[in-house]
Write a structure and sequence with these properties.
Strand content: under 5%
Largest sheet: none
Helix content: 55-70%
Distance between the termini: 41 Å
């Protein structure tokens, strides 16, 4: 199929750079990835993935908390930090990956 149409759009520069990095590791040029996305829209008759709000547990969903509940959670977190109850983020994520793979 001949490629002669031009698509101009503005995107967040950091997002574009991050996407190009991933696509580069996959060996896929950005234009090919956009073509793939557009082809999928045509094939499935819509966006080729669910477009939904995240389903966060109510215990951490700030949109379902009062201002007082949010402040209480922040205060508990700060008190844990002051008491030294912290973890290295990289190690915590590694433990999570190990237990969920």
């Amino acid at each position: 199929m001949e490629k002669s149409a031009t698509l101009n759009l503005r995107v967040n520069p950091a997002l574009k750079q991050d996407a190009e990095s991933v696509l580069g590791r996959l060996g896929i040029p950005m234009s090919t990835a956009v073509d793939m996305f557009l082809n999928q829209i045509v094939l499935v008759g819509g966006i080729p993935f669910p477009v939904t709000l995240p389903n966060a547990p109510e215990s951490i969903d700030a949109s379902k908390m009062s201002e007082e509940q949010i402040h209480a959670k922040i205060q508990r977190g700060y008190e844990s930090y002051k008491a030294g109850r912290t973890q290295n983020a990289a190690q915590a994520f590694e433990k999570f990956r190990e237990s969920h793979s």
